[in-house]
Design goal:
The chain is of the alpha/beta class and 411 residues long. It contains 16 helices and twelve strands. The strands form two sheets. Strands 1, 2, 3, 4, 5, 8, 9, 10, 11 and 12 form a ten-stranded mixed sheet that branches. Strands 6-7 form a two-stranded antiparallel sheet.
Length: 411
C-alpha cells in the first residue's frame, strides 16, 4: 500500500481514494466534498497546509487515512494493472476517461451506500482511469476465454480489446451480453447510429475530441477547419495528441486512418510534436509560453478547463468532433441480478451528471452541453464489425511510430 504523505495535494488524495472524504468531513474539511472546491483548490493545497488551517494533528490524521485505506483494501480492493485476473471478484469494473472518473466515483459512492443500506448487499466495484490500460489490462483481455473470468458489468473507454477478434470470437459471437440502453437513445447520438446493431454493447457516452489552437502562436497560418488540414506539411511538429512512451491514442488514430488511410497516418505522425496527457496539454496552454506547440487534439472536457479561452480557438472540424466511445457490457445471465445497478448507470440522474461534466449522455431525456459542438464523427459499426481492429491497431502503431521518429517527434 502506498502511504499518504503530508506533501500530497488534497486533490491527489481524494482522486485516488474518494471514500476518504468522510474522514475529511469529520475534521472540518467538508468543503472538499464540493466538486468546484476540490478541482480548483485541491490541486494547489497540500495536506499539511489544509490540516494546519483547521488545527488538526498531521500524524494522527494521516494514521486515520492509512488505516482507512488498509481497511478498504481488506474488503477486496486491488489495482487492475497488478491483478487483472481478480476482476472476476467484482460486480462492476469501470475504466473511464480521466475527466469522467471523479464525477462517476462520487455518484457511484453515493449510490453504493444507499444500495447497501437498502439491500444489505455490498457493491464490489473498481473504478480506474482508462489511461495506461491499453498495454496492461486490455492486453490481458485478449487472452481471456471464459465468461466466469469477467465481472457482471464492465464499463470501458475508447476502441479497446473488446472490439478485437479474440473477444469477438470468445464472447460477442456467443451473445453473452445484452444492450439495456434506451431506444431510441438521445437524439445527439441517434443521429450517428451510435447504438450497437447486435444489441450487446450498451453505449453510455462519448469522449469528444476537438482541435485547440493557440492563436498567437499560429504565425499567421489559418486555423484548420478540417481534421485533414492538420496533415499538411506546414504543420510538421506543431500538434500534440494524447500519448506517452511510444503509445498514441487509438481514439485519434483509428478515425484518421478511416478518413485518410495509411498515408494519412504517416502525415499525422509528421504533424505530431509529442504525445501527452490532456491535463498536461492544458498546463502547456495555460503557461502562456511561446515555446510550446500551437495545436492540440484534446477532449472537449479538457478544452473547457483552459483558464483563458480568449487566447485559443476551439474548433470542431467539418468532419465533426471525434467520438471516443464509453460503453458498457452487461452479462445477459446477470441482467436481473444487477438491475438496480444498471438502472442507476443508465438512468437520467447519472446521465445529467455525465452531461454536466462535458461527457454527453445517450439518455434520451437529458440535454447535453453541446452548444459549441455542431457535429460528431463516429467510426461506425460497419467499420468496427468488419475490420480486425486489433491487427489494424498494431499495423497503424508500427507505421505511425516509425514516421514519428523520422520526422523528429519528441518522445
Amino acid at each position: 500500500m502506498k502511504k499518504i504523505e503530508e506533501t500530497m495535494s488534497i486533490y491527489q488524495i481524494l482522486s485516488e481514494h474518494p471514500y476518504l472524504i468522510k474522514i475529511f468531513k469529520q475534521h472540518g474539511l467538508e468543503k472538499f466534498e464540493r466538486k468546484d472546491v476540490l478541482e480548483q483548490l485541491g490541486p494547489l493545497l497540500k495536506l499539511k497546509t489544509a490540516l494546519s488551517m483547521v488545527s488538526v494533528n498531521k500524524g494522527s490524521f494521516i494514521e486515520l487515512l492509512d488505516q482507512a485505506i488498509l481497511d478498504n483494501e481488506a474488503k477486496g480492493e486491488f489495482t487492475l494493472a497488478g491483478s487483472p485476473e481478480r476482476q472476476k471478484e467484482l460486480t462492476l469494473l469501470a475504466l473511464l476517461p480521466c475527466g469522467m472518473k471523479m464525477p462517476f466515483n462520487r455518484a457511484l459512492n453515493e449510490f453504493s451506500s444507499e444500495y447497501t443500506e437498502r439491500t444489505g448487499n455490498v457493491l464490489h466495484s473498481l473504478v480506474e482511469g482508462n489511461v495506461n490500460h491499453e498495454i496492461s489490462y486490455y492486453a490481458y483481455m485478449d487472452s481471456v476465454t471464459s465468461e466466469e473470468e469477467l465481472p457482471d458489468i464492465i464499463i470501458s473507454s475508447d476502441i479497446n480489446s473488446f472490439y478485437h477478434k479474440p473477444f469477438q470470437e470468445n464472447f460477442l459471437s456467443h451473445e453473452y451480453f445484452t444492450d439495456i440502453g434506451a431506444s431510441p437513445m438521445n437524439s445527439d447520438f441517434e443521429a450517428i447510429d451510435f447504438a450497437d446493431p447486435r444489441g450487446q454493447f450498451t453505449m453510455l457516452s462519448g469522449n469528444l475530441l476537438v482541435l485547440v489552437t493557440i492563436d498567437e502562436l499560429m504565425e499567421g497560418k489559418a486555423t484548420p477547419t478540417s481534421w485533414g488540414a492538420i496533415l499538411e506539411e506546414e504543420f510538421r511538429n506543431k500538434v500534440v495528441m494524447r500519448g506517452q512512451n511510444g503509445f498514441f491514442c487509438n481514439g485519434v488514430l483509428l478515425p484518421f486512418y478511416q478518413m485518410y488511410g495509411m498515408e494519412g497516418m504517416k502525415k499525422l505522425a509528421s504533424s505530431i510534436y509529442a504525445g501527452s496527457h490532456p491535463s498536461e496539454m492544458v498546463k502547456m496552454i495555460d503557461s502562456k509560453k511561446d515555446d510550446v506547440p500551437p495545436m492540440y487534439i484534446m477532449p472537449h472536457f479538457f478544452a473547457m478547463k483552459i483558464k483563458d479561452r480568449s487566447r485559443v480557438t476551439i474548433t470542431v472540424p467539418t468532419e465533426g468532433a471525434i467520438v471516443s466511445p464509453v460503453q458498457m457490457l452487461v452479462k445477459k445471465e446477470a441482467t436481473e441480478r444487477v438491475k438496480e445497478i444498471t438502472d442507476f448507470l443508465c438512468g437520467k440522474k447519472f446521465g445529467e451528471i455525465s452531461a454536466k461534466a462535458f461527457f454527453p449522455t445517450t439518455h434520451p431525456e437529458v440535454k447535453n452541453k453541446l452548444e459549441d459542438v455542431d457535429s460528431l464523427y463516429w467510426l461506425g459499426w460497419d467499420f468496427l464489425l468488419n475490420t480486425d481492429i486489433g491487427a489494424l491497431k498494431k499495423e497503424i502503431a508500427e507505421v505511425f511510430n516509425k514516421q514519428f521518429m523520422i520526422t523528429g517527434g519528441v518522445v
